[in-house]
């Protein structure tokens, strides 16, 4: 008798544990549909929170591979073929097309769309009308959400594997177009920007071709190929190197022989590299901008934050020795930051305007906050060579605008004061620059 | 025996009293003024409009209805008192006063239906996708569409124009009554949705073809362009006014703001409806995905907004970092933060930005990608430090 009781208690505890575990764990769709054999489903349409059973059946075909569902074909209303694939094949929690989803839960299929992260059920599908009629929609929605929540934990490692598979597949595709492992004999740089369109700050577009021993060409996307830019080590002189584009420096001392030099090396073949250069015509405008910081945001009090002052600037300007170019040395806060070279008459812009003040805070029952004051414009000293000609210099150093007063009741806040304009001082003297 | 007789006598008296009460009631009723006897009106099928409408396209004619059409059923919900019809006469008007109008009028008996809100032919769907839809456009939460399911068979449905889905399938109309055996409401709804899907696909192709005529879109398809002021691209999501030259290939870190515009070959919603939109930043081998990062904790979720796919072929000008507004994408900042020890004067870093659809944490379709070179200069250290402080403050929360 005592032994029987012991076994009964043991059985009860095991059952309780199984129940507890099954409560905490969620089976995959493949497991839930293991014994599902129906070839046709009865639909119940969902509208205004009610389910209405419909007579026309929806044929369903479930394809499996080693016990795992790989594909579901649903013939909606018998005419519209929808092909569903599992979200994660090795541990599916739903099946999807590009627009709708299917999930088998509580013995019925929920047919739904995702709307801002929430399932929006439009049909319940089941082998029997009886099951549809007995379905409590609110409970089904909760069960669906709970299922996804629990299943997402169970699914974690399968999802990681899927991510790895996707990454591996992308890597495989990338490798097919990569020069890695290919017998590359040479590289070629193709310039896609005309030199007549190149000046300081210009973007120069280029592409790369890699040719293997059989003559097969691997090229970057902008030359019609699929070879990744990551296959190459790209360095340039006179420009900031980047994939597809180079940006010409605004420091002429970094430019040699008025040209941008580009060096491309294969990351996977030692000794395979190429050099090319492109002439700079200095025919495009140069715009340098060092404005004061704008006051907005944060708005810490009723009064708008003031704009920042712009730094002072000094320009030394002369013609090049051959008298074809304008040379400008630009100092910002006393430090030479740019050595600009331009064709005659090509504009040069310098912006050292003060930062704008932020608007005052609006108040509902008191006066609005005062607008922040504008920052001061930077002072500019312009030293021009006595023989300078052909320059086209545009300088902006006005004070920043004061912020608007905040809206208030009964009075709006005062607007902030505009910042003081910077001074411009011009000196004519002998300037000699050589870059 | 005596007791029995008394019981019987009492019972007879009681029965008589009840009968007398009944008679009294009847007499009272009879003395009241008489109401006319209620005569049930029999529902009557109203005759069809006499006119035999015809047009060169064959849209006009008599259409049988799958449902019995009760007269103004919505207003008087007692069918037995109403007239009904089993068919409507349709009149397609191609021209009016010398102008092409492509209007469809429906007659319920002699009465013009649809309260003056006529259906109009969707010429674009017909021309571009060879799909016949008459649209009645006045409902705020959806439009009524009459869609040709097959020749001479139309489905009527209330459609969510933006989601391209049926809100309610209402009825099927056919010149041939035998078609109703095929097109019950569920089948009609499925077929109509199929037609809408095909139309949407056609619309996407037509829109892509339209955008491909735009020099910038054609050059940037599948790519991301970077800018330092959002005003360099059109504010309007429906326009591309910028030139490819507007985009920068390098940026001085800490000095310039960074915004971007991405150009998609196919909108995310057409590839993965209901999915999230992910952006991944990669600098020097360190990747930070917005979706993965926002799932780390509530502070990340609060600071990285969830985004979903939409119908757009290109973005507006989302912010990576804006010094004007002091805002930044925290995923970018975190990527930058993990590279901060490598910053040296003049050093450059390639930053790759990838936008993908994301289905429950898995990146699926790559919508666009782009690379920009970040240039570190000591002169801009204050700006870099400011960005690092933003992320350090968040990490310390």
Quick synopsis:
Chain A is 17% helix and 36% strand.
What labels would you give this structure?
heterodimer, A: alpha+beta, 5-stranded antiparallel β-sheet, 25 strands, 36% strand, B: 8-stranded antiparallel barrel, 5-stranded mixed β-sheet, 9 helices
What does this structure look like?
The complex is a heterodimer of chains A (435) and B (397). Chain A is an alpha+beta fold and 435 residues long. Helices cover 17% and strands 36% of the residues of chain A. Chain A starts with a helix and ends in a 6-residue tail after the last strand. Residues 16-24 of chain A have low confidence and may be disordered. By secondary structure, chain B is α+β, with helices and mostly antiparallel strands. Chain B is 28% helix and 31% strand. Chain B contains 9 helices and 18 strands. Chain B has helices spanning 2-31, 123-129, 185-212, 215-220, 268-271, 290-294, 298-303, 330-337, 381-396; strands spanning 61-70, 84-96, 99-108, 111-112, 119-121, 133-136, 143-150, 153-160, 165-174, 224-227, 250-252, 258-262, 276-283, 286-289, 319-322, 327-328, 348-359, 362-375. The chains are: A alpha+beta (435), B alpha+beta (397). The A-B interface holds A 43, 45, 47, 54-56, 76-80, 87-88, 96, 98-101, 113-117, 152, 159, 162-163, 166, 203, 229, 240-247, 293-294, 296-298, 332, 335, 337 and B 165, 168, 184-187, 189-191, 193-194, 197, 245, 247-250, 270-276, 306, 308, 323-326, 348, 350, 359-363, 371-373, 375, 379.
């Amino acid at each position: 008798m005592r032994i029987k009781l012991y076994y009964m208690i043991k059985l009860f505890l095991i059952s309780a544990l199984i129940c507890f575990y099954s409560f905490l764990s969620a089976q995959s769709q493949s497991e839930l549909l293991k014994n599902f054999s129906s070839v046709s489903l009865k639909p119940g349409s969902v509208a205004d929170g009610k389910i209405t059973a419909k007579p026309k059946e929806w044929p369903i075909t479930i394809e499996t591979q080693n016990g795992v569902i790989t594909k579901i074909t649903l013939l909606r209303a018998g005419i519209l073929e929808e092909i569903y694939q599992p979200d994660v094949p090795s541990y599916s929690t739903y099946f999807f097309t590009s627009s709708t989803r299917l999930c088998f839960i509580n013995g019925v299929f929920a047919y739904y769309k995702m709307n801002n992260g929430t399932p929006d059920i439009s049909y319940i599908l089941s082998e029997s009308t009886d099951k549809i009629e007995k379905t409590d929609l609110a409970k089904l929605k909760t069960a669906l959400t709970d299922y996804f929540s629990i299943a997402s934990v169970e699914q974690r490692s399968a999802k990681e594997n899927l991510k790895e598979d996707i990454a591996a597949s992308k890597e495989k595709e990338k490798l097919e177009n990569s020069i890695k492992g290919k017998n590359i004999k040479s590289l070629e740089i193709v310039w896609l920007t005309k030199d007549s369109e190149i000046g300081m700050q210009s973007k120069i577009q280029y592409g790369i071709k890699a040719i293997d021993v059989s003559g097969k060409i691997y090229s970057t996307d902008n030359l019609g190929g699929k070879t990744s830019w990551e296959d190459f080590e790209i360095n340039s002189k006179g420009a900031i190197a980047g994939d597809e584009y180079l940006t010409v420096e605004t420091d002429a001392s970094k430019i040699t022989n008025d040209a941008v030099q580009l060096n491309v090396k294969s990351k996977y073949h030692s000794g395979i590299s190429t050099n090319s250069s492109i002439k700079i015509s200095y025919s495009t405008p140069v715009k340098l901008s060092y404005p004061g910081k704008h006051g907005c945001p944060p708005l810490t009090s009723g009064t708008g934050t003031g704009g920042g002052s712009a730094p002072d600037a000094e320009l030394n300007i002369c013609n090049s020795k051959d008298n074809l170019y304008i040379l400008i040395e630009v100092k910002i806060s006393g430090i030479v930051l740019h050595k600009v070279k331009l064709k005659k008459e090509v504009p040069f812009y310098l912006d050292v305007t003060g930062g704008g003040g932020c608007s005052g805070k609006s108040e509902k029952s008191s006066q609005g906050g005062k607008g922040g004051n504008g920052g001061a414009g930077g002072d500019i000293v312009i030293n021009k060579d006595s023989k300078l000609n052909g320059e086209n210099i545009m300088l902006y150093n006005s004070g920043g605008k004061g912020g608007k007063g905040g809206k208030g009741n009964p009075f709006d806040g005062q607007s902030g004061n505009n910042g003081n304009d910077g001074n411009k001082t011009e000196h004519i003297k002998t300037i000699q620059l050589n870059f | 025996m005596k007791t029995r007789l008394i019981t019987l006598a009492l019972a007879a008296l009681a029965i008589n009293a009840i009968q007398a009460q009944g008679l009294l009631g009847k007499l009272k009723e009879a003395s009241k003024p008489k109401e006319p006897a209620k005569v049930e009106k029999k529902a009557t099928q109203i005759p069809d409009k006499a006119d035999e409408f015809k047009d060169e396209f064959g849209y006009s004619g008599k259409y049988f209805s799958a449902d019995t059409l009760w007269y103004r059923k919505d207003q008087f919900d007692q069918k037995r008192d109403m007239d009904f019809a089993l068919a409507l006469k349709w009149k397609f008007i191609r021209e009016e006063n010398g102008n092409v109008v492509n209007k469809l009028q429906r007659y319920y008996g002699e009465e013009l239906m649809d309260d003056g809100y006529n259906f109009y032919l969707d010429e674009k769907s017909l021309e571009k996708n060879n799909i016949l839809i008459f649209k009645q456009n006045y409902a705020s939460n959806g439009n009524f569409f009459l869609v040709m399911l097959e020749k001479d068979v139309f489905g009527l449905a209330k459609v969510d124009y933006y989601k391209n889905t049926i809100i309610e399938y209402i009825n099927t109309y056919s010149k041939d009554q035998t078609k109703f055996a095929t097109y019950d409401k569920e089948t009609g709804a499925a077929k109509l949705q199929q037609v809408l899907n095909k139309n949407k696909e056609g619309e996407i192709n037509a829109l892509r073809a339209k955008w491909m005529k735009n020099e910038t879109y054609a050059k940037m398809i599948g790519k991301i362009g970077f800018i330092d002021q959002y005003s360099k691209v059109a504010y309007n999501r429906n326009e591309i006014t910028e030139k490819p030259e507007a985009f920068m290939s390098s940026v001085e870190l800490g000095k310039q703001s960074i915004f971007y515009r991405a150009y998609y070959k196919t909108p995310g919603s057409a590839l993965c409806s209901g999915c999230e939109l992910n952006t991944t930043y990669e600098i020097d081998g360190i990747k930070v995905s917005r979706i993965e990062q926002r799932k780390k904790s509530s502070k990340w979720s609060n600071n990285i907004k969830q985004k979903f796919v939409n119908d757009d072929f290109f973005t507006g000008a989302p912010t990576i970092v804006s010094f004007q507004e002091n805002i930044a994408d925290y995923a970018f900042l975190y990527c930058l933060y993990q590279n901060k020890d490598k910053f040296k004067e003049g050093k450059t870093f390639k930053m790759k930005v990838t936008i993908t659809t994301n289905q429950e944490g898995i990146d699926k379709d790559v919508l666009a990608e782009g690379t920009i070179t970040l240039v570190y200069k000591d002169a801009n250290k204050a700006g870099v430090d400011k960005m690092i402080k933003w992320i350090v403050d968040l990490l310390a929360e």
